[in-house]
Write a structure and sequence with these properties.
Elements lengths: L6 H7 L5 H14 L4 E8 L31 E7 L6 H8 L6 H5 L24 E9 L6 E6 H10 L6 E2 L10 E9 L8 H11 L14 E4 L2 E2 L6 H4 L1 E6 L15 E4 L4 E3 L4 E2 L1 E7 L17 E5 L2 E4 L16 E6 L26 H36 L1 H8 L6 H12 L8 H20 L4 H9 L2 H9 L1 H24 L4 H11 L18 H10 L20 E5 L2 E7 L8 H21 L7 E7 L13 H9 L4 E5 H18 L1 H12 L7
Length: 692
């Protein structure tokens, strides 16, 4: 059996898909080399290597025609430099240039400073070839001589294709790299894999290592710098998004790394298998909404739980492996430290895949971890379902003052249930685009349902409404038209009762007086489709200004205000002019048309000035008896009136007919509304008499 050099393509050139994963391998190498600090620099390359591909010095001199023009962007490079133990030339050949170098077999399980080695397979350094076409390596041990070599992927691929050994090109060491430790310079970067900003690299590396050690390098700490700035807890973007957090024992997140107001829960155990010593530490938490974990372009998706072993990732995400279908799982992020997954015990195999982003899924350690986390999720989900609505309710009452006002007016026995309902609605995940409008609509529907049930004064029903889950509430509010029908049933009954009282009025002046007092605020008497009137004082003033002679005046020239001659309203998307005539006064259709035309024209003029000329206008006359027909010719009275009012979109109604028609229409609605009646009967069955 032989192994071809082409394995480099599979294990390095084509294995890693992003810069963060590549740099993680190099940072791990620095950690294993007992470095106290590793510096990563993403910068324009200022000059070519001191030696060319043949090893000869590059001639200095003026810019030649072969140089790129000034307007072209500079070539980008990444420099990774550590202050670790460094390598001699024999060590570089035996360790760095040997794919599959088994560090733990050759050097033991720990570094000279006692750090458990992160590296294991000896192929992590091949990751650089997936990011850069040119790699330069400079290294120096304590008291040794600095040395350097260059690898070009193009030349390496030629050697692979021709099945011949590949020898890196020795290069001179620049003065800034002639120091103890190892420096890699990656250039000719592949754009697709190196398209991250330095800030993005900072955020992603911060999640990939549990080495944010406050100790100084001299005291054994390990610090990662990018472009001169150290990675700290502030770069952990997922921590900034947390609303609730659950921590395993031995996990000590300092309060300053968490957002203000985060609710902390302690999980009872981190023992996956106590007999075998399989334990974990770490944490997982929930964001306010799932989109908080996926909308950071620089940090990437935060919606996963990274599993670490020996302070570096061994599996990028494990949530999808837990088969956890509850809503809680959509809000979770976290970090779990499980060193038993990368044990040095010869009894256990190496279960990490080559790129250290996944684990062999059928291994007993992986299955045990998944089962343990699944149970921890159930516990946390119960905590979350209880605590989240309370917190969201408090926030909602701040954001919706009217909701706070409504809640304050509830009887004390209703308030806990009302707060629970508000919290459930506030915690629903909605699309960001229409979130404010949609949530306000859901609050309206929830209040409507609450009010309907509250009218029955059945505490049990309100408690049930407040304790439904988000899934239940969506279904409940999906049937909001049933609640509206039920509430409308009460409204309709009150209207029929009001109309019935009108019906009992026998004197003409009583009918006129009552209708004058109530008609404008209750346009449903004219048309059941009209719910409310929205009047504009300014527009009415303008209307009177444009058509002053349309309004009756007394002998002193002052407008008569003792009774309503005209009222303007906007209802159901149209403008309505209502003119009431005395019950005993009979008017000719032509006379009404002339008066209505003044109102119509004046209002049309106002709308045109406001660029609203397309909005419809209707003129309604309320009369005691049918209008006369002074010049009807061969037309009937009704035909004549219709022709007179057509130009102003007008019509007339009679006091008595108005009352009778409205009553008949609402009675028909009550009889036809089976759905409303059925719901009313259902709620009646849940009334106080059956509450036991």
């Amino acid at each position: 059996m032989t192994v071809d050099l082409s394995v480099l393509e599979s294990l390095g050139i084509n294995l890693y898909s992003n810069a963060a994963a590549v740099l993680s391998e190099l940072v791990a190498n620095a950690y294993d080399a007992d470095a106290g600090q590793v510096d990563i620099t993403w910068q324009p390359r200022a000059a070519p290597s001191p030696l060319g591909q043949t090893g000869q010095p590059v001639a200095e001199g003026p810019t030649t025609a072969a140089d790129p023009p000034d307007e072209e962007p500079a070539v980008q490079e990444v420099v990774i430099s550590d202050d670790g133990c460094g390598m001699t030339v024999p060590e570089a050949n035996a360790r760095f240039l040997k794919a599959g170098y088994k560090k733990r077999d050759a050097e033991g399980n720990r570094s000279p400073k006692g750090r458990p080695f992160m590296g294991r397979k000896g192929i992590g350094k091949l990751s650089v070839f997936s990011l850069a076409q040119t790699v330069e390596v400079y290294s120096k041990t304590e008291g040794g001589q600095p040395h350097g070599f260059q690898i070009r992927v193009e030349a390496l691929e030629d050697a692979i294709r021709l099945s011949r050994p590949y020898h890196p090109v020795p290069v001179a060491v620049p003065a800034e790299y002639a120091k103890r430790g190892t420096t890699l310079v990656l250039s000719d970067l592949k754009k697709k894999r190196a398209g991250l900003t330095a800030n993005a690299l900072r955020k992603r590396l911060a999640r990939r290592f549990d080495v944010l050690d406050p100790r100084t390098p001299e005291a054994g700490g390990f610090h990662i710098f990018i472009n001169g700035t150290r990675i700290t807890w502030a770069d952990r973007q997922e921590l900034k998004r947390l609303e609730f957090i659950w921590e395993f024992p031995a996990t000590n997140l300092e309060p300053h790394v968490l957002p203000p107001g985060v609710r902390r829960f302690a999980l009872a155990s981190g023992a996956v298998n106590a007999q075998r010593g399989w334990t974990i530490s770490g944490w997982f938490g929930t964001a306010k909404r799932p989109t908080d974990l996926v909308d950071d372009e620089e940090a990437g998706s935060l919606k996963n739980i990274i599993v670490l072993a020996r302070k570096r990732p061994i599996q990028e995400g494990i949530i999808e492996k837990l088969d956890f279908s509850r809503l809680f799982g959509n809000y979770v992020t976290g970090q779990i430290e499980a060193d038993f997954l990368d044990s040095d015990d010869p009894e256990y195999d190496d279960i990490a895949t080559s790129d250290r982003q996944r684990l062999i899924e059928d291994d007993e350690r992986v299955l045990a971890l998944q089962d343990f986390l699944r149970k921890a999720f159930v516990t946390a989900a119960d905590d979350w379902s209880e605590a989240r609505p309370k917190k969201e309710a408090a926030d909602a009452l701040v954001n919706y003052p009217k909701l706070q006002e409504w809640l304050s007016k509830r009887p004390d026995w209703q308030k806990p249930a009302a707060e629970g309902m508000i919290g459930t609605i506030a915690s629903l995940e909605l699309e960001r685009r229409n979130e404010k409008e949609d949530r306000a609509s859901l609050f309206r529907s929830g209040v409507l349902a609450f009010e309907r049930i509250g009218l029955r004064e059945v505490a049990r029903d309100l408690e049930n409404l407040s304790m439904v889950t988000a899934e239940d509430l969506l279904h409940l509010l999906g049937a909001q038209d049933a609640y509206e029908s039920a509430l409308w049933l009460d409204i309709l009954r009150s209207r029929v009762e009001a109309i019935s009282s009108f019906r009992n009025l026998t004197r003409a002046d009583e009918k006129e007086k009552v209708l004058q007092e109530h008609l404008f605020d209750h346009l449903w008497l004219l048309d059941p489709a009209w719910e409310r009137a929205a009047t504009s004082t300014r527009m009415e003033e303008n209307l009177r200004h444009i058509a002053p002679d349309a309004f009756p005046v007394d002998e002193a020239g002052k407008e008569l205000t003792g009774r309503i001659d005209i009222r303007y309203a906007q209802a159901n998307g149209r403008h309505v002019i209502v003119e009431l005539k005395r019950y005993t006064v009979k008017k000719d259709a032509l006379e009404l048309q002339e008066q209505g035309l003044k109102y119509y024209s004046a209002l049309r003029s106002i709308l045109e000035q406001q660029n609203r000329a397309d909005e419809p206008i209707e003129v309604v006359f309320v009369l005691g008896e049918k209008p006369g027909a002074a010049r009807r010719g061969g037309e009937s009275v009704d035909e004549y009136s219709e022709s007179m009012f057509k130009s102003i979109s007008g019509r007339y109604v009679l006091y008595d007919e108005l009352i009778e028609n409205a009553c008949r229409q609402y009675e028909d609605y009550l009889e036809a509304s089976d759905r409303a009646r059925e719901l009313d009967e259902l709620l009646a069955a849940l009334g106080p008499e059956d509450s036991d």
